[in-house]
Amino acid sequence: MTIVVRTLADRIFDVIRERIVEGKIVVMEPVRQDALAAELGVSKIPLREALVRLEHEGLVTSRANRGWFVRPMSASEAEEIYHLRLAIEPAAAAYACVRATDDDRQAVTEAFERLDAAASAETRAEVAIRNREFHVALVRPGGRLLTTQLVERLEILAERYVIAHLQPAGREDRAHLEHRGILDTWIAGDADQLHSMLTVHIAQTLDDLRNHFTASQTG
Question: Distance between CA 153 and CA 50 in Å, rounded?
Answer without folding.
Answer: 17
